[in-house]
Design a protein that fits this description.
Protein NEOXANTHIN-DEFICIENT 1, NDX1-like, ADC_dom_sf, about 325 residues, seven-stranded mixed barrel, alpha+beta, Acetoacetate decarboxylase-like, about 45% strand, 7 helices
């Protein structure tokens, strides 16, 4: 999501409402590698293995322990990309094993760009869908000054601006033709820095990392593919985002409750039931978070996917050995 955008807009005490509509780019993606710049939240969850297996091709083995695998979601706001500026939510079902490596598997990808959706489907083999990202930002002033802030004020480093706690609500609505289906509601909280010094410290260290993933086996791209996202950014741990389901009473839903019954999207324009893939994707989002990482000053280079031979599947899953 757009953390830089949050800092700029939250300077106002008033509530800010944004509707992120579909964006278009006539130039196309061009040749790889594809470069994306912006910011993101990468949140890791413990996902029930039975939920993750619904998305994993049969030839893959799921990396699991005690009935759970490592999944979660990647929520990004790209200010620059081959498709222009857009938002993206990647729902990660879990980790799969195909010797000699293990990689993440995306259950569903929601993007606010038609071009990004088409490229993800055809070129990268992703289960991409067009969606609208509606955001609300509110600044809530804190009631006390911490000891560290008091010390900074005493030595003359305080700017005189009160610190505030910022809240962003993101409603993700999947668009299919003329119908719209609310998928999930994500609530994020962060501190809006009042000091340049504090802003620099809270951004975290500069890092480089690679996020390898498998994809394919879709109706748009039946091949089994592997691709890497090479990232340079500033990273820090943050409070995990709170996720709720699509319906008006779904804030108390859990992965287990949604996994055992179909949930109606009370705010959908078509009033239809969620399909199985949507329902299970929401189950992944509602699973237990264990770590949240904020990526700022993000530059992501996506390499061209390569076709990989599947490994013979000898069992339902690969269990981790705990000694």
């Amino acid at each position: 999501m757009g953390w830089v955008e949050v800092e700029l807009l939250s300077a106002s005490p008033n509530l800010v409402v944004m509707e992120i509509a579909e964006t278009k780019c006539s130039s196309g993606y061009g040749k790889p590698p594809w470069i994306f710049k912006g910011s993101a939240l990468y949140q890791l969850h413990l996902v029930k293995a039975e939920t993750a297996r619904a998305f994993i091709p049969q030839e893959f083995r799921l990396v699991e322990a005690f009935g759970y695998t490592l999944g979660g979601f990647f929520l990004a706001n790209y200010e620059e990309s081959p498709a222009g500026a857009f938002d993206e939510l990647v729902v990660i079902a879990g980790i799969v094993w195909n010797p000699p490596t293990s990689c993440a598997w995306a259950a569903r990808v929601l993007v606010s760009s038609n071009d990004a959706c088409g490229h993800g489907r055809k070129e990268v083999g992703l289960p991409s869908h067009v969606a609208k990202f509606s955001k609300r930002i509110a600044a809530i002033p804190t009631q006390h000054m911490s000891k560290s802030n008091l010390f900074l004020k005493m030595i003359g480093l305080d700017t005189g601006h009160s610190r505030s706690k910022d809240r962003m609500d993101v409603q993700v609505t999947e668009i299919t033709g003329s119908s719209a289906t609310n998928m999930c509601h994500i609530n994020l909280a962060t501190l809006v820095p009042g000091l340049k010094y504090d802003k620099w410290v809270r951004a975290g260290p500069s890092i480089k990392l690679s996020l390898p993933s498998y994809s394919g086996r879709t109706k748009h791209n039946p091949n089994l593919l592997k691709y890497s996202c090479n990232i340079e950014c500033r990273m820090r741990t943050v409070q995990p985002a709170k996720v709720s389901g699509p319906g008006p009473t779904s804030k108390h839903d859990t992965e287990e409750s949604l996994g055992h019954h179909k949930c109606k999207s009370g705010d959908s324009t078509n009033g239809e039931l969620l399909d199985d893939e949507q329902r299970l994707s929401i189950s992944v989002m509602l699973s237990k978070p264990i770590l949240a990482l904020q990526f700022s000053c993000l530059t992501m280079q996506v390499e061209a996917p390569i076709a990989v031979p599947p490994c013979p599947r000898s069992s339902a899953g690969t269990s981790l050995v705990v000694s």
